[in-house]
Amino acid sequence: MFEIGTTLRDSRVRRNISLPQAEAETKIRVKYIQAMENEDFDVLPGSTYAKGFLRTYADYLDLDYQVVLDEYNERFGTGEHREHNIQPPRTARPKAPHKRQNYLFVAVVAVVIIAVLAYLGWGNSGNQQATLTPASMDTTTQTATGAGAASTGPATAPATATVNTASTPTRTQPVGLQSLAFSATSGDNWIEVRRGSASGEVIWGGTLSKGNSKSFTADALAGGSVWLKLGSTVGLQIRVNGQSQQVGSSVGAVFKVTPNGLVRQG
Questions:
Q1: Are strands 189-195 and 201-208 parallel, antiparallel or unpaired?
Q2: Integer Cα distance of 231 and 153 in angstroms
């Protein structure tokens, strides 16, 4: 003989299920759940309701509800109408939290198996050449041809060459100083352009009147680093390699011109 109420309560507490949560998921009122856990079955509407509630609550807690009903009949019923229904499959109730964890584990295992099969099987497939970029196809073809003429080694050697060839990074930085342009939009601006250093050879110097522009090509800027010394920067627009530059509002500012823009020097 075992205590029905104690068994139900311990099972609920062990699963960290509150009474309101149990009520919401079983549709059994809290006062009836407490009555079952306290074995105060007189609170329940009747024997038929008591058996139905016990069956539902025990099944919700993953207990063998037939054992619970047999114990109830022995102690509180007549013993003449015991339940002998076949227990429904557990997988028909998706509400148990730990069942979802089992499904997640199975899914993870399936993904791992697929990844391993892909690595072992698809790595040797001739279709791998379809992933080549146009820039790397010539090099890959030459490598595969050389390997076939030299030996009859593993077919995976060209695939290794493909990975190495495709991994070449793409250059995104400007290759050099291509252009430098000034525009005076709201006043006159004094400008001095030097080569080599802030005190080097003067490429151009003078006052750029309002509404006028001045530009330099790559040929004029070649031969060393380029430096700017500016009078008032108010209303002065500067573009380096076609990109607008922020020079702020200052007087006598000195900048070094790089392919990426202006670098203030103090």
A1: antiparallel
A2: 71
CA distance 25 to 12: 13
Q: What is the identity of the amino acid at 239?
A: R
Partners of 230 in the β-ladder: 191
- Of 88, 114, 133, the one marking the end of a domain is 88
In-domain check, residue 29: yes
Q: Determine, yes or no, domain membership for 155.
A: no
CA distance 144 to 164: 13
149-165 residue pLDDT tens: 444 444 444 444 444 54
pLDDT tier for residue 145 given thresholds of 50, 70 and 90: very low
Of 185, 192, 180, 195, give the one whose Cα is nearest residue 238: 180
Query: For the whole model, what pTM was predicted?
Result: 0.36
Please give the C-alpha separations between residue 238 and each of 94, 179, 204, 215, 234, in angstroms, as whole numbers: 67, 11, 15, 10, 11
Helix axes 47-60, 65-75, angle to 10 degrees: 150
- Domain boundaries, position 75: 4-88
Question: Tokens 């509404």 belong to which residue?
Answer: 211
- Residue 17 belongs to some domain of the structure: yes
19: its two tokens = 């009474």
First to last CA, the chain: 91
* Predicted confidence (pLDDT) per residue in 221-262, tens digit: 877 688 778 888 888 898 999 999 988 877 878 989 898 888
For the chain, the domain total comes to 2
